[in-house]
Amino acid sequence: MIIVDKGKLEAILACIAEGTIFVGADHIIEFVNDRAEIMLNLPKDLVGKDIFACHPGSLSQPLTETLDQFRSGSDDVIRISLAVGDSNLDFSATGVHSEGVYLGALLTIKDVTESVAREEELTSLAGQLRAAQDELSTPVVQIWDQVLALPLIGSIDNKRAQTITEVLLERIVETQSEVVILDITGVHSVDTNVTHHLLKIVSASRMLGAECVITGIGPNIAQTMIHLGVDLDELTTMADMQEGLRYAMDRLKSKK
Length: 256
Description:
With 256 residues, this protein is an alpha/beta fold.
C-alpha cells in the first residue's frame, strides 16, 4: 500500500479542475480546494469549521439525512444541479469508507454553464428546424389573385394535418382567396385518417368562403375513398393541378 503524506495529497487535490470539498466523519470541513472557493464564492477560512455552521438552517435536515446515509455505509452518489450566480453547477456527493469505517463525505462541483448554454442553443436550433420543416411541409402558395395552391407530399398524420389546416386558414384570410387547389398527387396513401383530415380541411376552408378543389386523385386513391364511404360528388375534384387552375380561373371569371 502506497502512503501519500497529507501535504502532497492536498496539493494533488488542489490541482483538480473540479471544485472539491471533504467533510470528515465529525462534520468538520477538512479540505476545500481553490476551485471550490472560486465557484461557490467561499471564504478562505472554512477548513476546521463545522459543516452545519456554514449552511442555512433550512439545509440542516437534508444535510443530516445525506451524511447519515453515507455513515450507514451507502455508496450512492447523490447528484444535484443548481444555478449559483451566473453559473450552472453540478454537485456530486459520496461517502468515503475504508475497510468499513466511515471517513467522511466528498463533494465535487463541476461548472456546466457552457454545456447548459450549448444545450439551450441546440434546443432553440431544433425548434427552428422543426418550424422550418413544418413550413416546408405546408407550402401554401398564392399562384393567382384569390387562388391558393397546397401541394401535399408524403404522409399526413394528426400533427401535420393540424399544421396544414392552421397555415391554410391563415393564408385564406390573409389573401382573401376564394379557391384553394389541394393537390394530393404526392400523398403516399389515403386511409381513414387521411380522408378525415382532407374533409376537415375542405370544410374549414368552405367556412371561410373558399372552395377547395382536390387534384391528383389517382384510380387507387379514388377506389380507396369510395370504399371508405366518401361521396366524391360532394367534393370538387380535378385530374391534375393544371385542370384545377383552369377551374379556379373559370370560377373567378363567372363571379365578375
